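Translate sequence into structure tokens.
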Amino acid sequence: MNRKAAFLLLAASFLQAVVAHGESVKDALNHKYKKQVLGLRSPFPHGDLRFDSAGQALHERPAGSWLVYGGIYVEKLSLSSDTLRLEGPRGVLSQSNKERKPVLIRMGKSLKVEIHLDQPLKSFEEAQAVLGRVFFLDADASEHAKPEFRRADDSTSGEQIYHGGKDGTKFPKVLFTPEPEFSEEARKAKFQGNVVLNIVVDKAGNVDRIKIEKAAGMGLDENAVESVKGWSFEPATRNGQPVAAEMNVEVAFNLYSSHLH
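Result follows.
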């Protein structure tokens, strides 16, 4: 065997080993994260998401008065030497009323999350470290995976947020509560359900954040959120002073009416 042939054989063997190793990392990632909801550290833009390996966004920051946070349900996961790609819809795991077990509720069309790599990933641990710069992977990851809507100016950012009804904090008083619309999808399916939202009301009495704690599906969750965005309150008080406070509200939808309480 001449030197050129030996070199080509060695190169081919090396390439085969690299591909096989890449496949083992991809298989480990699929085993761990496929069919899971992973919460993003940054808000969703309008369209696909792109990041570098340090977790910095390469897409444009989303515009609008509200930012959307939450998780993506991983339907597909692929890995090449320069890109780690996840695909799936925004989604939330919510408890089924009938079977009392978590079920996936999709929220929107499928999208792609691409992480552009500086170099091939050599191990599952290295891949997990890269993923952890884009997604929450720690003990409370499931909390970050819940869909959350925040005002772009986020007036409560950095403030202490009290819990309504606890430690001397009086609940915000409702001033205006427009009723949500029943979704066409749910109406056609004759579907009824309740949506539980955790909301943060700022010192001025405006709703600043909305998180879906229990989803219903069929478009009812989005309608509930849109309605609650327009709520107004007298702010919560603590020791006679207005404070930012959070509390849960339930949006009940039935075939004849829908209301919040």
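Note: The chain has two domains: 3-146, 150-260.
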